[in-house]
């Protein structure tokens, strides 16, 4: 078994969409990024890649590449799942913490979990999403940014071409 950790932060501005786990969430401000700026999916992707020693999101999906401009991060997550499967890994569980002042996301959690689970081919009960505020402190408290942190546990099911541990 291996553990991975991911962290992502995006700036929030008026006039942009707020996409979390592939779901557009009604909000006053949205996240800015080269892709769809899905901070939650990006944190999960980095955690998964880290768990299997496959680098980070920027190495696989560089922000300077036109191919990734405005791309759905769920597509990137699906490609990340292919990397894991190619190395013989299965996702055991994912725990995500989203830090934002608004909007509230409780009513969207099940849909977000379903979106992630579908791309990873796992049951959504293996995914937990929590949200908290920064108590009006810092850039998040000023509603200038959003942050997500993810931890994952993966298990290697078969010998990979990289050799056993």
TrEMBL record:
Pathway membership: Isoprenoid biosynthesis; isopentenyl diphosphate biosynthesis via DXP pathway; isopentenyl diphosphate from 1-deoxy-D-xylulose 5-phosphate: step 4/6
Keywords for the protein's UniProt record, in alphabetical order: Isoprene biosynthesis, Lyase, Metal-binding
Catalytic activity: 4-CDP-2-C-methyl-D-erythritol 2-phosphate = 2-C-methyl-D-erythritol 2,4-cyclic diphosphate + CMP
Any Pfam family matching the protein: YgbB
Documented EC number(s): 4.6.1.12
Signal sequence range: none
Gene Ontology molecular-function annotations: 2-C-methyl-D-erythritol 2,4-cyclodiphosphate synthase activity; metal ion binding
Cofactor(s) this protein requires: a divalent metal cation
Positions of the record's site feature: Transition state stabilizer: 34, 133
Binding residue positions for a divalent metal cation: 8, 10, 42
Co-factor binding comment: Binds 1 divalent metal cation per subunit.
Sites where the protein binds 4-CDP-2-C-methyl-D-erythritol 2-phosphate: 8-10, 34-35, 56-58, 132-135, 139, 142
Cited InterPro entries: MECDP_synthase, MECDP_synthase_CS, MECDP_synthase_sf
Residues in 2-C-methyl-D-erythritol 2,4-cyclodiphosphate synthase domain copies: 1-154
Biological process per Gene Ontology, one example term: isopentenyl diphosphate biosynthetic process, methylerythritol 4-phosphate pathway
Function: Involved in the biosynthesis of isopentenyl diphosphate (IPP) and dimethylallyl diphosphate (DMAPP), two major building blocks of isoprenoid compounds. Catalyzes the conversion of 4-diphosphocytidyl-2-C-methyl-D-erythritol 2-phosphate (CDP-ME2P) to 2-C-methyl-D-erythritol 2,4-cyclodiphosphate (ME-CPP) with a corresponding release of cytidine 5-monophosphate (CMP).
Assigned protein family: Belongs to the IspF family.
Subunit structure: Homotrimer.
Protein name in UniProt: 2-C-methyl-D-erythritol 2,4-cyclodiphosphate synthase
Organism: Halarsenatibacter silvermanii
């Amino acid at each position: 078994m291996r553990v991975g950790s991911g962290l992502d932060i995006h700036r929030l501005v008026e006039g942009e969409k707020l996409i979390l786990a592939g779901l557009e969430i009604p909000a006053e401000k949205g996240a800015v990024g080269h892709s769809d700026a899905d901070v939650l999916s990006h944190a999960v992707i980095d955690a998964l890649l880290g768990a299997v020693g496959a680098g980070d999101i920027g190495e696989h999906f560089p922000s300077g590449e036109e191919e990734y401009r405005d791309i759905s991060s769920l597509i990137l997550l699906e490609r990340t799942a292919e990397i894991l499967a190619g190395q013989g890994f299965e996702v055991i569980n994912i725990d995500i913490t989203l830090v934002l002042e608004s909007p509230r996301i409780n009513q969207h959690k099940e849909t977000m979990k379903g979106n992630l689970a579908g791309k990873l081919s796992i049951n959504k009960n293996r995914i937990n999403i929590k949200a908290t505020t920064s108590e009006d402190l810092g850039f998040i408290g000023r509603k200038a940014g959003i942050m997500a942190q993810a931890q994952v546990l993966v298990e290697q099911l078969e010998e990979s071409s990289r050799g056993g541990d």
